[in-house]
Design a protein that fits this description.
mainly alpha, Fic-like fold, 2 domains, 3-stranded antiparallel sheet, globular
Length: 249
């Protein structure tokens, strides 16, 4: 994580953004000069974002591009019907994992039986089965849609996901406080504030989706959306679906 350092040289104060990391047994450091004073918050936010993108470009993008090229070669040499089968298989595992994180009682075997054989597993919660089916439908829609990523699209996804299991929250931006399990962080709880943050987030997305690498854009969107936590429940699942949408496109 980047930190702000202060150095004194001949009685004068200088500030820097500093990021340290270990690579091949060596500690490496990257710094960015800020000036004699720490910039105002808006300017600092812009500098921090640019610095983060530089770190990603230098440290991670070469590895990411290598993985992408390897995957692309496999994809291009695989028959179309097999690629579709692989995407569906990924969707089944994704559906199991994303729901399991949120406490679903279904095993991977259960999920496969529900989605491939339309069989109901015994001694499982009905809502878990419904949300498994709903999530897989959303995943397959996400692969095909060309609709612009917006707050409205995420709300539509949320409504489709929870309309049968939690209709009182499905598609609605909350106007009450919520907590995050295992964290002391308190998300914003005013609907007006949440909607303002979402509008700002998706403006950032539209302005930067072509400017930055998709992995960087997906990471920023994931981090900021989950921090806003706009729904009463299902924020993690919507965030992970959105992240995959950005990477897939």
């Amino acid at each position: 994580m980047a930190t702000i350092l202060q150095r004194s040289v001949k009685g004068k104060e200088y500030h820097y953004l500093s990021y340290s990391y270990r690579e091949k047994g060596k500690v490496l450091k990257k710094e960015k000069y800020l000036g004699n004073e720490i910039p105002p918050s808006d300017e600092m936010h812009r500098i921090w974002e640019e610095f983060s993108e530089e770190i990603v470009e230098e440290r991670w993008l070469p590895i990411i591009e290598e993985i992408k090229e390897h995957y692309q070669r496999i994809f291009e040499n695989t028959p179309v019907n097999i690629n579709k089968k692989n995407l569906r298989n990924f969707g089944i595992h994704f559906t199991h994992n994303t729901n399991k994180i949120e406490g679903s009682s279904l095993t991977l075997r259960d999920v496969k039986r529900v989605l491939e054989d339309d069989k109901l597993p015994k001694n499982r919660k009905p809502n878990d089965v419904i949300e498994t089916k709903s999530h897989m439908i959303l995943y397959e829609e996400m692969l095909e849609t060309e609709v612009q990523l917006t707050t409205d699209l995420i709300r539509k996804w949320h409504k489709k996901m929870f309309r049968l299991t939690e209709p009182n929250i499905a598609g609605f931006i909350r106007d009450y406080p919520v907590g995050i399990s295992g964290s002391d962080y308190e998300p914003p709880y005013s609907k007006i504030e949440i909607e303002g943050l979402l509008n700002r987030l998706f403006r950032w997305y539209r302005a930067n989706k072509e400017r930055y690498h998709p992995v960087f854009v997906a990471s920023v969107m994931h981090y900021r959306f989950i921090a806003i936590h706009p729904f009463g429940d299902g924020n993690g699942r919507m965030t992970r679906l959105m992240t995959n949408y950005i990477l897939h496109k």
